[in-house]
Amino acid sequence: MESLNPTQRRIHQAAFRLFAERGTSQVNILDLAQEAGVARGTVYSNIDSMESLFEAVASHLAKEMHERVNKSFNSLSDPAQRLANGIRLFIRRAHEDSQWGAFIHKFAMSNASLREMFSSQATTDLLSGLSSGRYTFEKEQLLSVLTLISSSVLGSIFLVLEGHRTWRESGSDTAELVLRALGVSPEEARALATTELPVLPSLD
Amino acid sequence: MESLNPTQRRIHQAAFRLFAERGTSQVNILDLAQEAGVARGTVYSNIDSMESLFEAVASHLAKEMHERVNKSFNSLSDPAQRLANGIRLFIRRAHEDSQWGAFIHKFAMSNASLREMFSSQATTDLLSGLSSGRYTFEKEQLLSVLTLISSSVLGSIFLVLEGHRTWRESGSDTAELVLRALGVSPEEARALATTELPVLPSLD
DNA sequence: GCCTGATTGAACACTTGTGTTCAGTTTCAG
DNA sequence: CTGAAACTGAACACAAGTGTTCAATCAGGC
Predict the structure, then answer these.
(1) Inter-chain CB pairs, A–B, below 8 Å
(2) DSSP structure class, residue A147
(3) pLDDT tens per residue across span A77-121
(4) Which residue of B has its CA nearest to A177?
(5) Helices (H), chain B
(6) Cβ count within 10 A of residue B40
(7) How far is A156 from chain B (nearest CA, A)?
(8) CA–C1' distance B135–D10 (Å)?
(9) pTM
(10) Which of A173, B19, B49, B100 sits at a 20 to 30 Å CA gap from A71?
């Protein structure tokens, strides 16, 4: 958190890679030191514990993605288009940065920050789309809808990581299916799910 | 596999419980022996390795559930009703046996037998429903549809395990949303998702 | 060029797990 | 009763990781 020095940054980046590739329980201090190109003692004097390191990495990732997606949404007002783009932005990023994808896929369900990233992203648009009549589901179903969306995105990321489908196919299929589930007409769902997808803005 | 003696059965059942509660990497031989009410040496002389034990437990679970769901489907011919029931049978079982639910939730994505259980269950009905015009999606989207279904079910199981929704709500919501995604009309989707759900047959 | 703080890496004492062996039981079918 | 098979549990020898300490070295700012 609160501004890392260069050594801490290297350790956090190394941790990100190792967590993504192996999962939390398979990363030890020695591996981490080597991956960061640093001595074992340096790791101990720069982190409190593996748990807090993991938490810091996960919440940094969640925050970063949340802000970039939000930035990309500045120009979009239609909740259905925002949802379709959000879904595809996540899936495309998993393709472009497979370590990011692997990290999200492994931990999105179990980590609070990452879960929050998914749900806060979608909840506002879901509610506004609901009250504007764009979607047709009951508001008691909100939690189920959120779950459907986040799990489908994770499943789709897995598909892309495994190379079973391209991010483009998997992304537009998922967006289309989700929109249809929410009550958007098939034709419109298809259209919204296949628009040109803008580049994910960087955080200047 | 191939018929377990009583001791092996106790070990496998204990392993199931521990894997469900803690995940594979947090189960050691001593814990397993104690949970099974057996000496450490007995465990070593009854299993080859943790990995093969896990594999055996997972594939047993997959096979058992697959057969019971199939048995329950004997009387149903409508692919959409079968799908709706399948989804809800999984979610209800996770509620009735939370260790089963936890096991499935933890390992369904990473274990081949469990993934196979999900997809083989759904693929046939998806294809028949597609050719009979009950569903409206492209057959190139089959993999995405399968992924949407299995991940939603897993997400829904998680919701139920965490106590955020009842199995009944979560199950019918998920079935309804999935059917709508596949092109079933909202009214019909709702109806199919809220029928009385038969008891899961036992394997005599 | 010197000072100071950061980094190095080896050494330490621990802890927890593994897989094996084996003499002393139980257990139960014949 | 009586074997044979299975189970017990303690004792080994390892392996791999943890977290700490500390003298030596490095590197950058003043």
Answers:
(1) 98
(2) H
(3) 999 999 999 999 999 999 999 999 999 999 999 999 999 999 998
(4) B181
(5) 6-22, 29-36, 40-44, 50-73, 79-96, 98-107, 112-131, 142-161, 167-182, 186-193
(6) 13
(7) 7
(8) 65
(9) 0.93
(10) A173
